[in-house]
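seq:
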Amino acid sequence: MENIYEQIRKLSFKYENETADFLAKMIQTPSFSMKEKEMVAVIKNEMEKIGFDKIRIDDLGSIIGKIGNGKQIIAFDAHIDTVYPGNLENWNFPPHAGIIKNGKVWGRGASDQLGGMASMVYAAKIIKELDLNNDFTILFTGTVMEEDCDGIAWKHLIAEDNIRPEIVVSTEPTSLNIYRGHRGRMEISVEVKGVSCHGSAPERGENAIYKMARIALEIEKLNDHLKHDDFLGKGTITTTIFESDSPSQCAVADFARIHIDRRLTFGETKVSALSEIEECCRKARISNATIKVLQYNEKAYTGKSYPVEKYFPTWKLEKNSKWLKNAEISYNNIFNKKPKIDKWTFSTNCVFIMGEHAEIKCIGMGPGDENQAHAPNEMTRISDLSAAAAFYAAFVAQLNNK
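struct:
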């Protein structure tokens, strides 16, 4: 007689083509940040077809499908927005064609991150069909605006809807490995003022460009001395934009601004990162610099604005976490091998889940490869879709039978 994990794998193969077709359908529905309305309709239709117990759309526009009514809550998450295709000359096919060919699904969002959405919806079908869930309320969230502001949708779900799962499984691409963390990040601006004068006599003024240049050089040096974590690696900082202004092309600049991308390793915080930039300004002998953490305040497709600070905290699940152990057992039961435990290079919705709420744990496991994210000719292997769906169902089965 087949054990439960063999039954799960069998069903994941059975629904593999349907999962791939669903992914292709989503790819054929362009869904850029703040423009996800049509994608939500596609996902809602699929959830209704599968028979989710409840489906709703929150004020920010994320779709939440539910199965089960247990007291404990667990969640699977996929963001449903994608970046734009970029230069079409770099694509070998139309980015939103949703082509299924050579065992792969091709198109914008295939790996980042619609493949995870497809797999977790069909995992729900397997969970319901095999009656795997007795103890949990399981949420399957298709979240908006992640590409524009990672985590904003979950910040809203937690703060406004009071949704607080014990564990959130992010289905961002991991090449079917299990991830337990990634660095955080901040978006910071530094501004300095100068005194304008005619360019023929620059000694009469104070050139804001030169002031900012000295700060930027100190920031370059700072990058070599940032904190290191054995698992997540080193924090980084870099200047990405340099702007200036002056009354004319023949006048000394009286204003300059830089934009900073700061990646935070474990143990680095908003306070520590800002103090380091303040020290850079002191070393540059600039006393009038204004340092700001930038704000995000764009409107969702629903018309709602939800302002957030662009500080996205670092997170790392402990090696001895019961959730990680359950994930490893589930993985071994499904694939008959131990998983590789790793981390993302990029940032995910987990910044505003576990990063901001340490009591809500996160792990990651998804179809597709991280290096496909934002790349032309993006693809996901169909075998990854069924494998990820099987893992999600096995994870639920393991939690219900531990």
